[in-house]
Amino acid sequence: MRITLPNQLPFYPLFREGIRRAPDRGFQLTVSQTRTALKNALRYIPSELHVHLAPEFLEELKTRGRIYGYRYRPEGDLKAKVIDEYKGQCVEGKAFQVMIDNNLCFDIALYPYELVTYGETGQVCQNWMQYRLIKMYLEELTQDQTLVIESGHPLGLFKSKPDAPRVIITNSMMVGMFDNLADWEIAAQMGVANYGQMTAGGWMYIGPQGIVHGTFNTLLNAGRLKLGIPQDDDLRGRLFVSSGLGGMSGAQPKAADIAGAVSLIAEVDVSRIETRRSQGWVQRVTRNLPEAFRWVNEARVGLQPLSIAYHGNIVDLLEYAVANNIQIELLSDQTSCHEPYTGGYCPAGITFEERTRLLHEDRLTFKQLVDRSLRRHFEVIRKLVDKGTYFFDYGNSFMKAVYDAGVKEISKNGTDEKNGFIWPSYVEDIMGPELFDYGYGPFRWVCLSGKEKDLIKTDRAAMECIDPNRRGQDRDNWIWIRDAGKNRLVVGTQARILYQDAEGRLKIALRFNEMVRNGEIGPVMLGRDHHDVSGTDSPFRETANIKDGSNVMADMAVQCFAGNTARGMSLVVLHNGGGVGIGKAINGGFGMVCDGSERVDEILRSAMIWDVMGGVARRSWARNPNAINTVNSFNRSYAAEYHITEPYLADGELLDNLILS
């Protein structure tokens, strides 16, 4: 049986008013490359339809910068259904269809008609022909097969075995000399490269909730480490300022509310503001800076949490704060600065609509405006830092974008970026030493039944698996999951985020699988953000606190991917790019379907510990003190099955005397 798209031309779908659309990504192809791009798209289509579709695809390429194959998009909102409503030969095949549709529904996707889930360019796959073919393959997938997907293209079903992955995905794994944004853009326009971001191309995105616990942890620990807030206190009376209310950045006001802070978040796209306000993720909205800061002052004096969206540019907001001597304790940025010249950063001085027009009509002028704005952005942050503000790069490649805009003084050595930047990455200062080095990271799950009562049961079960007295991190996580339902975090299908270490993840995973086996809940999809202990190698973010020189190496992420594949996780993925841009990170993740079977128990026991401790081991070998202690304790506790290599520590004074003598 051949799995192929039908030879009937689909009706062109209607586009709903008010749904965000991706900007024109630019058409740069030569005549020869254009011909190849059209051939590449048409190879999904039966030959008799080529005469109808070739002109459509060429028009998309010239006006949108990509061939999306809009005609093949299903009509309406692709809201995730209950797992039993999908066709399939195995539970994993149906589970993955739930996850794909959840990534692309109107409530979650940034640009749903262009298959962009979040991060300005992060796609499930490249085009709607791939989407349809992937769904067809998932309907036919059995426990004895593996579906292989390369940059959105379903290569096909291959014979394997029940304890092998059901799906293996890679995205934009470019050969080194071509691993740069310029060559990637050509490859993307030609239809051979897909930007998977992190959890978009891995089908594990769960809306802004997917980052909210990490943002909460970051803000709370920033307050403890930099503002002297006690361990058992919150951020009441403190101001957090940032920008962005998109897919990931939209978590900022909700996380700040939960942490007790006052937050003021700038956003230039009014549609993103309205989305977050309608979902209850931001409390107030204004275009007026005096009004915004009046609200800020009232909330600070009253020690009340308050989240405010400012419809305007972050540079204008910060310059106003400096001019009016307004104190900002915590400051960051979450514009999509990994894509500064293709729409991820809107320059000060122009509107969001002008940004979109310039992207289409005058990319050179747009780039010049971006560079000028990034210089202003840098200068105003420097003034605030000099007044006592704690600024941290929130992993969006902001400081690298500033450096690339010509601001060399943002680098530590003033000449290149190899030694990092003058301000810390949040991983370097906070998340790395306080969470990743212990093994704590963004564990998550989806109740495939779509039932809220199943999510409530899993919340309670996860809470029972945590000992709040073991570490301060466990206490924070126990309180987080206790209050998760009350904080109304779900956007899309029934999902949850919960930071956990290796031991905690395994306990919770086995408990969930037992609950499925006993009929207490329906099947559960386990996963994590790739932004995790061992999931990503990225010198400006996830591995920013690796100081032994290996922060530029991608061995960890690749080994994590290979190890999860060997151990039989249901879905394994490996991407180039992530949240910081092509050539700046390699990241991987997994999905594991809990179907209640003993087979899944065995895979969990083997894979879950590996997925976390491989990263802790690398961090320990880099001589990170908390990771060394974690590995030492792990080696004692699991001596019968594991042993991680521990480093000997050299005497710094001995080496200095030797080298400098």
Keyword list:
661 residues, alpha/beta, six-stranded parallel sheet, globular
Task: Note down, in words, how this protein is organized.
With 661 residues, the chain is of the alpha/beta class. Helices cover 42% and strands 12% of the residues. The chain contains 22 helices and 17 strands. The protein has helices at residues 31-42, 50-64, 91-104, 128-140, 181-190, 209-226, 251-258, 270-278, 289-302, 314-323, 340-344, 352-361, 363-386, 398-404, 426-434, 452-464, 472-482, 502-517, 555-567, 598-621, 625-637, 652-660; strands at 116-118, 122-123, 145-150, 153-159, 167-171, 239-243, 262-267, 284-286, 306-311, 330-331, 390-391, 441-447, 495-500, 524-528, 536-537, 571-576, 586-594. The strands form three sheets. Strands 3, 4, 5, 12, 13, 14, 15, 16 and 17 form a nine-stranded mixed β-sheet that branches. A six-stranded parallel β-sheet has the order 8-9-7-6-10-11, sandwiched between helices. A two-stranded antiparallel sheet has the order 1-2. The longest helix has 24 residues, at 363-386.
